[in-house]
Amino acid sequence: MSKIVQPRTLSGFMELLPKEQILFNNMKEKIKAAYERFGFLPLDTPVVELSEVLLAKAGGETEKQIYSFQKGEHNLSLRFDLTVPLAKYVAMHQGELAFPFRRYQIGKVYRGERAQAGRFREFYQCDIDIIGDETLSLIYDSEIPSIIYNIFKELKLGDFTICMNNRKLLNGLFASLGLSEIASDVMRIIDKLEKIGKENVIAELKELGVSKEAIDKVMDFIAIQGSTGEVIEALEGLQIQNEVFVEGLAQLKEVTENVKLFGVPEENFKIDLTIARGLDYYTGTVYETFLNDYRQIGSICSGGRYENLAEFYTTKKLPGVGISIGLTRLFYQLNELGILEEAKKSISDVLVVPAFDEIKQAIVISNQLREAGINTESYLNDKKLKAKMKYADKLDIPFLVIIGEEELKENLVSLKNMLTGEQVKVSLEQAINMIKKER
Amino acid sequence: MSKIVQPRTLSGFMELLPKEQILFNNMKEKIKAAYERFGFLPLDTPVVELSEVLLAKAGGETEKQIYSFQKGEHNLSLRFDLTVPLAKYVAMHQGELAFPFRRYQIGKVYRGERAQAGRFREFYQCDIDIIGDETLSLIYDSEIPSIIYNIFKELKLGDFTICMNNRKLLNGLFASLGLSEIASDVMRIIDKLEKIGKENVIAELKELGVSKEAIDKVMDFIAIQGSTGEVIEALEGLQIQNEVFVEGLAQLKEVTENVKLFGVPEENFKIDLTIARGLDYYTGTVYETFLNDYRQIGSICSGGRYENLAEFYTTKKLPGVGISIGLTRLFYQLNELGILEEAKKSISDVLVVPAFDEIKQAIVISNQLREAGINTESYLNDKKLKAKMKYADKLDIPFLVIIGEEELKENLVSLKNMLTGEQVKVSLEQAINMIKKER
Question: What is the separation of C-alpha A176 from the centre of its chain, rounded to a whole number of angstroms?
Fold first, then answer.
C-alpha cells in the first residue's frame, strides 16, 4: 500500500467542478468567437519566458509578484500578463507580420498576489490588440468599443456601459496647472475615486502637495457629466489652451462620434472623465466597462491606446490600441452574484441507455446519433436503469434515449425529455429531429 | 531612450506565426469537438501545483525533468502531464462527480528535457479518461478506439492504424517463463522493438539475463501477426495455461470484437503484440496509433486501461481507461513533413476596404457582414488601395469587399475573390451569399 498524500489545490488557483467549467468555457468561447468575428489572429506564446526578457520593463510591485526560478543556466519567469509577450513577439517577428497586426490571445497569467476572495494567482486574460507599423489610424480607437459591445451583448450579463476618456485631457489639464511632474501620481489617485470617494481623493491630493486651486480645478473637471455631446461641449467651454489638452479633446470628440458608426447604441457608451487607468503605459483613449446593475465589481473590460508597444525590445515605433478581459475574476464574481447564464450546463445532448442488456444496440444507435451531429454519450456500465437515469439527471443531460426489448422489437426508441419528464416512443429519425430542435 | 533587451523565446517552447497558429488551433478545435461529441466533460486544472502533491508518485527520470521552485513557504511545480492532476481532482471531488466520470483536458504541460528538434519543454496534451467508481465495464475499452478513429478521420492525415494489445498477455507469458520479477524491464526492451530492431532487443534481453529458451518464446510471441481473428487464434494455439494470460486473451478477444460495433472499420485497427507502453501504470488494454505513411514519427495517440488512477491520494479504487495526444509534437512533425491540411489559413472571411476615403461606409458595411455571421475585418489605416490588397493577400483572406465612389452611387459593392482574382459588382446581399457559399 502506498503512502496517501492529501490531494489539494493551491489557494488562488481556480479549479472548477464540471458544470461550472462548462459555463466558464461557454464564456471563453463566446469571447473568442467575437474576437475572430472581427478578424483578430490567434496567438499562443509560452507561459515560461526568460526573466531578462519578460522583466525588461517591469519593476516595483509587479516584479515582486512574479513567479521566477532558476532552471539549469537560465533564470525563468511565468508571464504576468499577455502584453509583454506580445511586445516581444511583434519585435521578434516584425518582418513577417502584416500591419496593422490584429491579434487575440486567451491564456493564463500568473501573479503571486496575497490570496483573498476574488483574487487569483493564476487567471485567464482575454486580450486583443491592434498594432500599427509606425502609425495607427485613430479610427481603430472607435472600433474597440464595438467589439466590447458585441461581446457583452452576447454574454447576456444585463445592461452595461463602456466608459471612455483620453489621457491627453488629463495630461494637458495637469500641465496647465503646473502638475506635470506629479501627473502619474495625481492620476493614480483620481483613478481611485470610485473606490475611496471624493473626500479621500482630495485628502490624498493635498497630501501630495497639490494646491487648493489646482485641486478645485481637477475636481471640477472630473465632475463633468452628461451625454457625450454635453461633455464635449463642457470641455470646450473650459477654454484650456494647452496644446496636449486641445489634441486630447479633438481625439475624444472624433472617437466618440465614430463609435456610433460602428453600431454601438448611445446607451451603451459614455465619456467618463474620472477614468485614467493606473498604468503609465496608455497615452490616448482609455476604456473601462461596467455592468450597470453590478458597478461594485469594477471594470470588466479595460484598455486603451498606447504610443509604443515594444520600446524595450526594438527601436521601431509600434503604436497600438487594445483591451483585456480578466475572465477568471469576472467568472468568479458573476458566479458569486448568481447571474451566470444557466442555459447549457451539459456537454452531451443525449444519454443512450440500454434498459437491461441491449448494450450492442445502444452502441449502434449512439454511433448514428453522433453521425447526425449530436453530442452523445452511451451509458455502458452494468447498472440498474434507475441508476442510469440518476446519472443523466446529475449531469443535466437534456435527453435520454432508452433501448429496451420492446423498442427493439418495434424498431423504435424511447425518448425521454429530462426537463419535462415526458417520454415518447418514436423512430430514431424522429428522435434526432426532436433533440436537434431543443438544442 | 530605454535600454534594448534582445527579444527571444526559450528553445523547446513552441511559438508560431499566425498562419501556423491557425492550423494548430484548427487541429485543437477538432480534437475538442470530437471529445465533446462523445460526451466528455471539460476540466481545466492549474498549471502550478504543490510539489508534494504533484510528485507523490513521480521518481527517477520524470522527477529530474520537473520545473520546481520555491514561492513563499511553498515548494511548487509545473505539471508534467494531465493524468496526475486528474487523479488529484477525482480524489478531491469523488463525492461530487457522477461516475463513470468522463473528462477531457487540453492543456500545456512542462518537462525540462534536453532541447532537440521535435522535443518540447512546453507542449499540449489532449487527454480523455473514463473513470469508474470501484469498477468500469470492459466495453469502454472498445469505445476508446472509436474516438481515436473519429478524430484522425476528421483531421485528414491519411490512413492510420490503431494498434491494440493487452498487458495481461505479456505479464502472463512472462510468469509462465519465470520472468515476472523482471517483467517491467523486459517490457521496456520489447517496447523499443520498432526503434532499435529485433537483434538489439535480443541482445538487450540476453544482457538482462533472460535464457535463450525464454527469449525465443518471447520473440515468437511478439512475431504473431495477422487479422484480429488470426492473431486471437494463434494466441489460443499457444495453449498457455497461465491464469493472467488466459484472462488477457479473453479481454483482448472481447475488446477487439466490440470495436467493430462502435463503427471502426477493420482496416483501421489491429492487434500488435509488440505494443507494451513503457509505463508500469497500464494493466490491461493498451493503444498506440500510427499514420500508415509516416510510421517513423511514432505513435500519435496512445493510452490504455489502468487498475487504479489515484492510489496515492485515496484508498478508493478508481479504475479507468484513457488516451493522450501530444499535439505540439504531432503538429511539429506534420508541419516538417508538409502534410498539414492547407484548407483554412485565415480567420477573416472577408476584408472590407475603402477604395479612397469611404471609411464610414466601409464600417457600416462591415457591421452588416458581421451580423450575417461572417468574420469581417475592416482595413481602416490610411494607405493606398494596392497596400490594402497586399495586406489581404499576405493574410490569405479569401474575399475583398471594395467600397468606392462608384459602388456607393449604385448602392453596390465590388467583391473580389482573392484566389481566382475574379471581381464582380453585386448587392451586399449577393456578396454575403457568395462569401458564405465559399466558406
Answer: 37
Task: Find chain A residues with C-beta within 8 A of B14's C-beta.
Answer: 46
Query: By percentage, how much of chain B surpasses pLDDT 70?
Result: 97
Sheet containing strand B282-291, edge to edge, reads B41-42, B101-110, B122-131, B320-326, B302-306, B282-291, B160-166, B269-271
**Distance from C-alpha of B116 to C-alpha of A167, rounded to nearest angstrom:** 48
Higher pLDDT residue, A352 or A117? A352
Number of H helices, E strands in chain B: 17, 16
Q: Beta strands B122-131 and B320-326: pairing type?
A: antiparallel
- Looking at every residue in chain B, the average pLDDT score rounds to 93
Sheet holding B74-78, edge to edge: B48-50, B74-78, B68-71
User: What is d(CA B258, CA A363) in angstroms, rounded to the nearest whole number?
Assistant: 10
ipTM value for the complex:
0.94
Residue B7 CA from chain centroid, whole number: 30
Contact (CB<8Å) B44/A21: yes
CA dihedral A219, A221, A225, A230 (to 10 degrees): 160
Distance between CA atoms of A2 and B314, rounded to whole angstroms? 10
Is it the case that residue A402 has pLDDT exceeding 90?
A: yes
Helix pair B167-176, B183-190: axis angle to 10 deg: 120
What CA–CA distance (Å, rounded) separates B340 from B333? Answer: 9
Residue to mutate among A147, A308, A347, A397, with most B CBs inside 10 A, is A347
Long-range contacts (CB closer than 8 Å, 24 or more residues apart) made by B425-429: B428/B365, B428/B368, B428/B369
In chain A, which residues have their Cβ closer than 8 Å to the Cβ of B2? Answer: 57, 311-312
Q: Report which residue type is found at B118.
A: G
φ, ψ of residue A140 to 5 degrees: the values are -65, -25
Which of B178, B306, B169, B171 shows the shortest CA–CA distance to B246? B169
3-class SS of residue B291: strand
pTM of this structure: 0.94
Q: What residues does B49 pair with on adjacent strands?
A: B77
Taking only the tens place, the pLDDT of each residue in B295-321 is 989 999 999 999 999 999 999 999 999
pLDDT tens for each residue of B122-167: 999 999 999 999 999 999 999 999 999 999 999 999 999 999 999 9
How far, in whole angstroms, is CA B26 from its chain's centroid? 12
Residue whose entry in the numeric block shows the C-alpha cell 447526425: A372
C-alpha dihedral (B276, B282, B283, B287), degrees to nearest 10: -50
Closest CA to B264 of B338, B399, B409, B163: B163
Minimum distance, in Å, between the CA of residue A162 and any CA atom of chain B = 18
Nearest to A363 among B22, B46, B261 (CB): B261
Helix/strand/coil for A378: strand
Q: What is the largest CA-CA distance in chain A?
A: 91
Q: For chain A, list the domains and their CATH numbers.
A: 350-438 (3.40.50.800)
- Please report which confidence band the pLDDT of residue A276 belongs to, taking 50, 70 and 90 as the band edges: confident
Contact assessment for residue A58 and residue A89, using Cβ atoms and an 8 Å cutoff: no
Predicted local distance difference test score (pLDDT) of residue A300: 96
Query: Which of A26, A27, A41 is the best mutation test for B, with the most CBs of B within 10 A?
Result: A41
Q: Is the omega angle on the peptide bond into residue B42 within 30 degrees of 0, that is, cis?
A: no
The dihedral formed by the CA atoms of A274, A278, A280 and A283, expressed in degrees to the nearest 10: -30
Going by pLDDT thresholds of 50, 70 and 90, the confidence category of residue B342 is low
State the cell numbers at B350: 472577408
| Residue B426 confidence class, pLDDT cut points 50, 70, 90 | very high
- Average the pLDDT over each of A58-62, A154-158, B12-16 and give the range with the smallest value: A58-62
Higher pLDDT, A342 or B104: B104
pLDDT over 50 at A1, yes or no: no
Find out whether B320 and B309 touch, Cβ atoms under 8 Å. yes
